[in-house]
Amino acid sequence: MVQGDYKKLSDEELVFRYARRNEQPAITQLFERYGHLVLGVCIKYLKDTEAAKDATQQIFIKLLEDLKRFNIDNFKPWLFQVAKNHCFMQLRKTNPVINTDNIAEQGVEFEDGWHHKIEEEHLLTHLENAVAGLNEEQRQCIELFYLQKMSYSEVAAKTGYTLLQVKSAIQNGKRNLRNKLGILRNVRL
Question: Does this model's pTM top 0.85?
Answer without folding.
Answer: no
